[in-house]
Amino acid sequence: MNVRMLLVTNLMCFILIIPEINCFLYVEYHDQIDFTHVNITRGAIQDVAAIHIASYLEPGKYDVVRQNASEIIRLYFQKNPQAKDRYKIAVNEILQGLSMGERNVQQSPKYTMNNEQIEEGNRYLNEKRSLIVSLPIDDHQLLTAIRLQIGQFIFTLQDFYSNTNWIEIGGGVLNSLGWNDTLGFPVAQANQSTCKDCTEPSAK
Ligand SMILES: *[C@@H]1O[C@H](CO)[C@@H](O)[C@H](O)[C@H]1NC(C)=O
Ligand SMILES: *[C@@H]1O[C@H](CO)[C@@H](O)[C@H](O)[C@H]1NC(C)=O
Ligand SMILES: *[C@@H]1O[C@H](CO)[C@@H](O)[C@H](O)[C@H]1NC(C)=O
Ligand SMILES: *[C@@H]1O[C@H](CO)[C@@H](O)[C@H](O)[C@H]1NC(C)=O
After folding, report:
1. Which of 129, 173, 177, 180 to mutate to test the pocket of ligand 3 (most atoms within 8 A of CB)?
2. Per the confidence metrics, is the pTM higher than 0.90?
3. Which end of the chain has less neighbouring CB within 10 Å, N or C?
4. What residue's CA is closest to ligand 1, atom 14?
């Protein structure tokens, strides 16, 4: 399973506060992914929505082994086009938050976990997560704002996996990311080299 995908899905479970779902074990429904922020996020939201539909809204109605996420979503919304429109708006607002996350980068490399700002980036994520979970989800006026925040959070979270060497060193899913102010392991200083020099003639 794609690690970034798994993480985003876990994240969505935390944020959407669906505690009964075992967010770490599920059938991998999603479409083929192309590794852009938007594609990964879209796929993760689709997974979470399908899990929610199949586990809560209409439990027992879907075959989660044979039916993929887009199929479950299609069948569920077939009978309620208005709900489908609202779902699309929600997804687009989260994706809009991703681009806002990208714009934040101009202010500081911590938003992309770059330039050894990994600890700062993690503290930012933890603050952002605390803010998000403190916002009242029963206030419909606030839902757009919450989704935009979630999108910004996800942008930086994904960049941890793409802009650090965490995956290359076999780190897997990092549960402390965006959850604790301390990551639980030492992070290289800006003046420490973290890559091997390319000495092989074939190395690029
Ligand atoms: C999902 O399932 C539907 C219906 O079986 C199928 O048409 C579609 O191609 C599947 N999508 C993927 C990405 O496998
Ligand atoms: C992600 O990208 C792939 C390849 O371009 C595409 O087939 C797929 O539908 C996209 N997934 C989502 C959820 O947008
Ligand atoms: C967060 O940190 C606390 C102690 O500071 C620790 O007990 C807990 O396991 C950590 N959680 C994660 C997900 O790393
Ligand atoms: C890196 O910088 C820190 C202080 O910023 C310094 O204490 C340390 O000696 C430096 N390490 C190297 C390898 O230059």
Report:
1. 180
2. no
3. C
4. 31
